[in-house]
Design brief:
- Strands 1-10-4-7 form a 4-stranded antiparallel sheet.
- The longest helix has 26 residues, at 136-161.
- It has 2 domains: 2-159, Jelly Rolls; 163-241, Arc Repressor Mutant, subunit A (Orthogonal Bundle), CATH 1.10.10.
- The protein has helices at 2-17, 20-25, 34-41, 124-133, 136-161, 164-179, 195-202, 206-218, 235-241, and strands at 45-49, 54-56, 61-62, 64-70, 73-78, 84-90, 95-96, 105-106, 110-113, 117-123, 181-183, 186-190, 222-225, 229-232.
- The chain is globular, with a radius of gyration of 19 Å.
- The protein is α+β, with helices and mostly antiparallel strands and 243 residues long.
Length: 243
């Protein structure tokens, strides 16, 4: 009953927002005035996804921008062997489908909600009108695309050249940047992925992840709190492990 009330409240708030707040979170819209944002967000459609629900599949028509207003989603592909390979983890303020706003295509990956998520959707046809009036948005999109290409290149290099401990340390540092909370001398990190997902991310087994995390705890670099929470005790040593 409480869950139903919470969902109803969220839906009401989302309708009142009319996309204004989620649009503010998106970096590529930072060049827009309040008036332009208002016009843009009138075109936004709001959708709720449950944990584990697929948002879109590889091969679906890519003609929309998806903005994460609340929650986390994972972007992933399947290898030829049928194993899941995670490409990105996106959270509040992140977005996917930005290239779809420039050219309609097919998605080259899948998207799944890691937790209950509120997502705002903007269709390419509606965005085209705004782009004609504000071509500088294209520059912002290119900057975001550049950052993602660099992340993918780093992932590929890490998978091919670094040992497993270095890959795990690099992934934890990436999570610290996006999800870590500083608490005195330590950093508290709520993992956005399960250990199995982490294993898929860096191309090892779940058992290997558990063993390496346990080793890092024995070394005093981290503390494991349950299966999803980590205390980073020595960030410098964690950074050293990536070299």
């Amino acid at each position: 009953m409480n869950e139903a009330v919470d969902l109803k409240r969220e839906y009401k708030i989302c309708n009142l927002c009319k996309g204004k707040y989620c649009a503010h979170k998106v970096s590529i819209f930072s060049v827009l005035t309040e008036e332009q944002l208002t016009k843009l967000t009138e075109k936004i459609v709001h959708k709720n996804f449950k944990k584990g629900q697929i948002i879109f599949f590889e091969g679906d028509i890519s003609d929309k921008l998806y903005v994460i207003n609340k929650g986390k989603i994972k972007i992933f592909k399947y290898t030829r062997e049928g194993k899941e390979q995670i490409l990105y983890i996106l959270s509040e303020g992140d977005f996917v489908g930005d290239l779809s706003l420039l050219k309609k295509d097919e998605f080259k990956f899948n998207a799944e909600a890691l937790e209950d998520a509120n997502i705002c959707v903007l269709a390419k046809d509606d965005f085209d009108d705004m782009l004609k009036e504000n071509p500088e948005i294209s520059i912002n999109i290119l900057q975001v695309v550049y950052d993602r290409v660099i992340k993918l290149e780093n992932l590929i290099q890490s998978l091919s050249t670094k040992d497993i401990e270095a890959r795990i340390a690099g992934l934890l540092l990436s999570f610290v940047k996006d999800f870590g909370i500083r608490k005195g001398n330590f950093i508290e990190l709520e993992l956005p992925l399960s250990r199995e997902d982490i294993a898929n991310y860096i191309g090892v087994t779940r058992e290997t992840i558990s063993r390496k995390l346990g080793s890092m705890q024995d070394q005093g670099v981290i503390d494991l709190i349950g299966s999803k929470r980590i205390i980073i005790k020595d960030i410098e040593e964690l950074e050293y492990m990536t070299t």
